[in-house]
Amino acid sequence: MAVKIGNIEVGDFPLLLAPMEDVSDPPFRALCKEHGADVMYTEFISSEGLIRDAKKSTMKLDIYDFERPIGIQIFGNNITSMREAAVICEAAKPEFLDINYGCPVKKVANKGAGAGILRDIPKMVAMTKEIVNAANIPVTVKTRLGWDENTQYIVEVAERLQDVGIKAISIHGRTRKQMYKGEADWTLIGEVKNNPRMHIPVFGNGDVDSPEKAKMMKEKYGVDGIMIGRASIGNPWVFNEIKHFLAHGTHLKRPTLEDRVIACKRHLQHSIKWKGEVLGIAEMKRYYTNYFKGIPHFKEFRIKLVTSFDKDEVFETLEKVAVEFEGIKF
User: Fold this and answer.
1) Is the pTM higher than 0.70?
2) Could you tell me the CA-to-CA distances from 149 to 109, 161, 166 in Å, in that order?
């Protein structure tokens, strides 16, 4: 039976691409969609930036038909600004609007935005209610277990957010204090899902980096789907690998070097098309190590890739990688 966010079907067991700052842009989303991601989310967008029409914020509103269904994610700590930003986002015509209550970085959380709002649950609920009332599309939430080990109130919080109208919740299995350290704890995610009062989809997030882990989380905790973040960077194949394993119990053949070069080149092409040649090339530099992780003696090529700002030279270097390491096994 298909999972629905509001009235939008997203698959029987959807795999969601996590919203990641400086990662989940249209070029990256394009690769993940091609390789099996069911639901996309944008990078998080500052509500204050949106209402002031800041270019860095408004550029993140770019969405494309090929990546639907997609949610635009916003963050902020001012209820009025968040409500106004929700209206601006809706005009960009996403399927969903997502509220970021999970970002742990200091510059966000210490201002009471992102995971910072987990220290003020009444405000979190009030803000969510205002956004739900302002939006004419389904509102979803991405959050964490709590601020720290003493404030893991996610079972109650999820209920309260559902009561004010959200249509799905994604939960990262760490507290804000943990940042991304230690292992994600899915126990409370399972408690949210298995709470008889919950009737909206509950998606789990945190440390799912293999088909086996995805299967275990699905079967052990009963979540409606899984949100995947860091495991997809330089590895967009992870979505189809998980889908195949869940359906058949066998592994898809791992991508070859040729597959990796093709995907990397496509990512670069998308990046240049969306951001222009200079910025498109510059922002691809963070991905090369991930695409070619596991290749011995790759340092020389990595240095060439990250120091070149000439499009033809970068593509030529990628071709040389394909030739130099042809036949290598991953």
Assistant:
1) yes
2) 16, 21, 25
User: Would you give the DSSP letter of residue 116?
Assistant: G
- CA dihedral over 129, 134, 140, 42, signed as positive or negative: negative
Successive 10-residue mean pLDDT values, the chain, 330 residues: 95 97 94 96 96 94 94 97 97 97 93 95 98 97 96 97 98 94 94 98 97 97 97 97 97 93 95 94 93 90 93 95 78
Distance CA 27, CA 295 (A): 24
CB atoms within 10 A of CB 307: 10
Structural domains for the chain: 4-248 (3.20.20.70), 257-324 (1.10.1200)
Q: Would you list the DSSP string of 51-88?
A: HTT-HHHHHTT---GGG-SEEEEEE-S-HHHHHHHHHH
Q: Do 305 and 66 form a contact (C-beta atoms < 8 A)?
A: no
**pLDDT value of position 330:** 63
**Residue 149 corresponds to which tokens in the numbers above?**
């080990």
Q: Are 143 and 171 in contact (CB under 8 A)?
A: yes
Q: Which residues pair with 226 in a beta bridge?
A: 15, 204
> 103 catalytic, yes or no?
yes
The distance between the two most distant Cα atoms of the chain, rounded to a whole number of Å, is 59
Distance separating alpha carbons of residues 232 and 144, to the nearest angstrom: 20
Cα gap 86→146, rounded to integer Å: 24
Active site residue: 32, 89, 103, 264, which one? Answer: 103
Residue 155's contacts (CB-CB under 8 Å, 6 or more residues apart) are 188, 191, 192, 195
Closest among 88, 198, 174 to 137, alpha carbons compared:
88
